[in-house]
Amino acid sequence: MILQYAIEKIQGCEDIETVRSIANSVNLNQQSSKQWLVDHLKPYLDMYMGNKPKIVIAAGWHGLIGHMLDMDCVSFDMDPICRKVKLFPNVKYVTETMEDFDSSKFDVIICTSCEHVTDDVLNNFLAKRSSSSIVCLQSNDYFGIEGHINCKRSLDEFIDSVDIVVLDKFEFKTEKYTRFMVIGR
After folding, report:
1. Residue 182 near residue 169 (C-beta atoms within 8 A)
2. Cα separation, 182 vs 134, whole angstroms
3. Higher local confidence (pLDDT), 23 or 87
4. Higher pLDDT, residue 55 or 28
5. HEC per residue, the chain
6. Contact present, 20 and 13 (Cβ < 8 Å)
7. Average pLDDT over residues 173-180
8. Given this model, what pLDDT does residue 47 score?
9. What is the pTM of this model?
10. What is the pLDDT of residue 53?
11. What value does the mean pLDDT take over residues 68-96?
12. What does the buried/exposed string (b/e) look like for 142-160 if buried means 16 or more CB atoms within 10 Å of the residue's CB?
């Protein structure tokens, strides 16, 4: 269903790089890692007991997590194409960098792209959050991709690199890499 929706969006794109980006953003690996996040984050979202938490997704690409959460959320990415394409209607797309985005107004902060930013950028972004915010972060040990500038060798190394109080931690092994996830405050 997600792939069919993406295919409909791709049909209107003339730029092959945009088509590749959209297709890659909803591939089966992306879907499985995002569903893994949704499954583990759900109990924390349920704590809001009927109130809709304000959710932001940092470096959210084409908004797959927001779509899978099935909640209104803000997804920001430095690539203006993400805002132009608007792949999923329940996602509010913003073009912004982590350095400039103010996370202080959000109850839930998600970033599944920690391997794409430095520890300083990530931790400076997180330092702006409210002390009551729930934070969900993912990284991996997939060093073989050009844009992966900050992979971690282990879950413990990832935990040591982020300035949050960890409430839960998880590993998701795939054929090519291991994805790490922490949920905390």
Report:
1. yes
2. 10
3. 87
4. 55
5. CHHHHHHHHHCCCCCHHHHHHHHHHCCHHHHHHHHHHHHHHHHHHHCCCCCCCCEEEECCCCCHHHHHHCCCEEEEECCHHHHHHCCCCCEEEEECCCCCCCCCCCCEEEECCHHHCCHHHHHHHHHCCCCCCEEEEEEECCCCCCCCCCCCCCHHHHHHHCCCCEEEEEEEECCCCEEEEEEEC
6. no
7. 94
8. 87
9. 0.89
10. 94
11. 91
12. eeeeeebebbbeebeebbe
pLDDT value at position 22?
Answer: 79
Structural domain of 12: 2-184
Determine contact, residues 96/128, Cβ cutoff 8 Å.
no
Q: Which amino acid is at 127?
A: A
CATH number of the domain that residue 129 is part of: 3.40.50.150
Question: Which amino acid does the sequence have at 65?
Answer: I
Kindly state the tokens that stand for 103. Answer: 């996370």
In total, how many domains does the chain have?
A: 1
pLDDT tens digits, one per residue of 113-136: 999 999 999 999 999 999 999 999
Token pair belonging to 104: 């202080």
Q: What integer pLDDT is reported at residue 162 of this predicted model?
A: 98
Handedness of CA 49, 138, 7, 18 (dihedral sign): positive
